[in-house]
Structures are given as C-alpha cells and as structure tokens.
Amino acid sequence: MAADDRPYKNTVAVLATMHGKERAIGPVLEQGLGLRVALAMGLDTDRFGTFSREVERTGSQLDAARAKIAEGFEYAPYARVGLASEGSFGPHPYIPFLAVGRELVLLIDRERGLELAGCFASPETNYGHAVVPDMKAATAFAARSKFPEHGLIVMGCINAEPAPGLALFKDVVDHAALEDAVGQVVAKCGAAFVEADMRAHRNPTRMRAVERAAGDLVRRFRNRCPACAHPGFDVTERTGLPCEGCGLPTHVVRLEVLTCSACAYREARFATSATTADTQHCESCNP
Asked: Is the per-residue pLDDT at 96 higher than 70?
C-alpha cells in the first residue's frame, strides 16, 4: 500500500465508545487510512441515548455521533481526529415483518474542517423483542435471538409495553441469568419484556455491521472530488427507473448524482441502460 493511501499515518484519533467498538473500527481505519484509534477513557456514551430506554436519544444518528465526538475531544484535547459510531434499528422500509439495522461511523478532522460518515444497512440483525409470561416463552425467544452468543435485556412490562423503570436487567449473557431476571420480572409484573441486547459488545452481528460501516468510511474517504480532490465525493441523490406498467418511479436505480461537500461539484451517472423496470419492483403495481 502506497503512503498516499494512508493519509493519517501515525495520527491518533479519539473514539467515543464504551462498548468495545474499537475492535471493529480500529483495524479497518488503521489499515485503510493510517489512523491509530485511542479511546476517550471515562466517557459515558450512554448519556446520549440507550437502547434499553433509560435515556432517549434526541435527534438523528448523525446528531448523536457528532455529540459523542465533541465530548470525546473534551476528554482528549490533543486529538486532531474524532470518531464515533451510532446505530438504529427498526422495521424495513419496504418489506413487511423484516427488521433492518443501520450503522453510521463518523470521522471529524477538526484541523481540516472535514466531516465524513460511513454507513451500512442490512436486514441481517437479531433485533427484536417478546413479551413473555414464563421461562418457556423466554427460552424460545432467546433461541431466535442467537442467545447466549448474543446478549439479552429483560425489563418490566405494563400492558405489553416495556417499563424499564419497574425493572431492568442488562448483561443477561447466560441461561442462569435469564431465568433469574425473567423470574423476578414476571413475579412483579405478570410478564417480562425481553429484547435483544443491541449494544455492540453484546451483539457480534452488530459488531460486524459496525466494521462494514468503517469500511464504507474508508471507501468514501478515497473517493476524491474530480474538481477539487476533497474526500467524500459520493452519491447524494438517486432516481428510480419508471415502472413499465404505471410509469411511477421504482426502487431500481436509474440515475445517481454524486456531489462534493467542499466545492459543490456535481456529476450524474446512469446506473443502468434500461429504460423501464418490471412491475415486481413497483410499490404501486406490486405493493
């Protein structure tokens, strides 16, 4: 690998995490950009939002990642580069009953005034929950959630909704801990709300997705603007092919527009030579 391919060789980047994400992000960014990742020791990233709902995240994924980096710089004022990761999980936008996870890894170089994010989205996630009245139901959900390789969270339940204020058990990583937590919560609430632990250090599937997002960050950094050579020249708009049946846009990409955030140079590229898409890709004809 040429020296120019590692523009941050021996540069220290402070990573704001308390959930082991340095294991996924560090090697990728060191190999791809030359960054040496160090932790903002003592930083409590849970204050920016928790999956277990004690602290609601305010704003978007990007907002949360920016806030984490700003706090990371407070802990490491010597650092030129800050890093943070943020994930979100929910229903797939097009496919019913399918969950999707979205990961973002953000880099801010405050010396260059550069902000760049890598992203990865995939339905390969164990995100989910169940309201369980007993250990038998909890064990069935645990098996679907890849437990015990992936952790679980058990919390109180009111009217089939999570109630972490009544009871909350994190770090449920073996069957004995699961049985104890479910037993206590069912005795108190009549049922327990059990969900996959989406914290990266308790979720190997998510950790792999964070690694993929870090790889996308490297890819975007290497995409230089043809006009000014600024990193991050990438797709900002997509246009779908018209449906051959009704003419409305489909999910099949026809045109991509790439934009430079520094000089606003834009370039349009056709993604296919086709002029229409089959009706199977149309939400109107094939909902």
From this structure: no
pLDDT in tens, 129-142: 999 999 999 999 99
User: Residue 286: helix, strand or coil by DSSP?
Assistant: coil
Of 235, 218, 224, residue with least CA distance to 263: 224
CB contact at 8 A, 102 and 121 = yes
Give the lowest-confidence range in 53-57, 94-98, 242-246.
Answer: 94-98
Distance CA 231, CA 250 (A): 30
CA angle 113, 118, 124 (to 5 degrees): 160
**Which pTM value belongs to this model?**
0.90
What span, in angstroms and rounded, lies between the C-alpha atoms of 265 and 228?
Answer: 9
For the stretch 157-181, pLDDT in tens is: 999 999 999 999 999 999 999 999 9
Q: What are phi and psi of 254, to 5 degrees?
A: -100, -45
Task: Residue 227: count other Cβ atoms within 10 Å of its Cβ.
Answer: 14
The terminus-to-terminus CA distance of the chain in angstroms comes to 48
Amino acid (1-letter code) at residue 107: L
Beta strands in 17-93 (DSSP E): 35-39, 81-91
Q: Which residue's entry shows tokens 């645990």?
A: 142
The residue type found at 76 is A
